[in-house]
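Tokens for chain A. Residues wanted.
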């Protein structure tokens, strides 16, 4: 299946807020394709993905979640590094990651309650290693290889799963899967109270 192409505008235009594709949409279960270097107005797409993510109060957003079957995602892990007064502690990451290749995951696994903008109102504990090494391109198609730890690693692992067609609900324990089954069925039918625009089957 070819990637869906969104309507792009000039870079000088205000970034768009795209609707988010909901659980049940086929694009969320497909392995995404590399985004080409000649993709039309890539900086505008990146800005719009950030705008869409912030509008939905998320910390990460992948291409398949806005209906494009490309290996691109954006993250801003700042909320996980803020104290009660909003002061940032540590080193959060705000970045676009394109055509990522996971090189290695290591370290102790830890559980964290994850959610997803494509699956509103559903959360569950997911165990992930605390370190990931990734090779990727930035929005200028410059290559990087970096190691991420802690919550930065967690956010990247979650979004990396999206471009591989994996949802966090597949990684929770069997009891939790049973408990959220009805909620997932309702979301698939368009029954959700998300306060942002979504696209259903």
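Reply:
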């Amino acid at each position: 299946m070819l990637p869906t192409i969104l309507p792009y505008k000039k870079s000088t235009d205000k970034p768009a807020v795209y609707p988010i594709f909901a659980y049940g949409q086929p694009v969320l279960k497909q392995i995404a394709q590399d985004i080409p270097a000649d993709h039309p107005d890539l900086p505008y797409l990146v800005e719009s993905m950030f705008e869409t993510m912030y509008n939905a109060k998320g910390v990460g957003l992948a291409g398949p979640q806005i209906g494009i079957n490309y290996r691109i995602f954006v993250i801003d892990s700042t909320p996980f590094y803020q104290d009660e007064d909003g002061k940032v502690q540590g080193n959060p990451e705000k970045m676009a990651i394109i055509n990522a290749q996971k090189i290695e995951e290591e370290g102790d696994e830890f559980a964290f309650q994850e959610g997803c903008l494509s699956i509103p109102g559903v959360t569950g504990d997911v165990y992930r290693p605390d370190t990931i090494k990734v090779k990727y391109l930035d929005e200028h198609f410059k290559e990087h290889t970096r190691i991420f730890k802690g919550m930065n690693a967690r956010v990247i692992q979650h979004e990396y799963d999206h471009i591989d067609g994996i949802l966090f609900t597949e990684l929770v324990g069997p009891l939790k899967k049973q408990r959220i089954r009805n909620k997932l069925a309702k979301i698939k039918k368009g029954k959700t109270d998300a306060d942002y625009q979504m696209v259903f089957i």
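Residues 174-188 form the longest helix (15 residues). The mean pLDDT is 93.
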